[in-house]
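Annex B. Sample input.
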Amino acid sequence: MTSPILILGESLMDCITQQDGRLLPLLGGSPFNLARAAALQGGDVGYLSPFSTDTFGQRLKALCLADGVRALSADSRRPTSLAVVTLREGQPSYGFYREGIADRDYQPDAVLRQLEAMPAGVLHTGSLMLVPPEHLKVVEVLRGARALGWTVSVDVNLRPRVADDLDAYRAAVLQAVELADWVKASDEDLHTLGHADATLETAAAVRRRFARDDAQRIAFTFGAQGAYLWIDGQEATAMAPRIDVVDTVGAGDTFWGSCLADWAHQPAGAALRIEATLKRAMRAAAINCSRAGCQPPRLHELVQEETIL
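Annex B, continued. Sample output.
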């Protein structure tokens, strides 16, 4: 039986800056992207954060539903969050508009009541939800979820330009990491958190300093260089597949969504298939990078590619 994967996090419009100065609106947000990626690979995924009743919010909700993600909260009358994205050599940089918006329109006690009414599975969060003071609500949810038997997943996904106080932001992120059973961070995240030596070659040493001793699963991604995965004492590394990159929007979300779908579908024996899980997640991220915006692959696309390989 597949364990449920519930998502608490932002859904927003990525407004991509065009060469002529126009903004091209695309549906996005790291947890939103991850929810779709996991659902497209067969995960039983539900979205806890509210969608807005505005046009953007209803488009986000419709795409989630089309990809198999369940909307678990009533829509909010607050507006959808916006991100202005500038691509330089395929790499995105972001500016965010996040005050008084729909995905922050929730109360921890209401979320915990939903978790209590369901069989325990995986609760995922991270990214902009960890920016102070929003992180206080998230930490309350994570603590309550752990007490209810849920597995906590956190994707660090730091956005330093959003925080007024970067030190406070780092402290908030590390507080969430301490509560997490499964953690993902990029090389940029690790550098911002003080691990300046973080590379694919030093990943094992960085892991021992980064997460608590009883964290069960940890992934570090290093862009085109590859990724590192640690599961219950077993570790693996994989090089990134060679592809023609269109952009990298949603690559990390697709990677971690693939991992969560794999573990939720097959809870037992994760450490034994660590290399297969990592390679599939890398292939999923690579396929996404070959497309404009975040377009995670469906399960059959990965199965076809594995058959060819």
